[in-house]
Amino acid sequence: MAITKSAKRALRGSTAKRVVNDRIRRTMRDKVKTVRDEVAKKDVKGATKDIASAFKALDKAAKKGVIKKGTANRKKARLAKALAKVAKK
Fold it and tell me: Cα 41 from chain centroid?
């Protein structure tokens, strides 16, 4: 447990930031999972509609520093590639 005054303040701040970061991370994962599920079901219309919201969530997470920019780009590329593979058939 924090002992000094400044350590207690830092703990409060980091706890608040953790709540925000967890919410951003959860939103991102849910959106990506939705697209992945639709791709697995070969629901091209639904996946095409939801991929924009997944990209937005990934970009927002990268902007806020929850994930790195390269990680967001990699995830977006893999989602787009999976969707293109299903849409081609």
Answer: 21
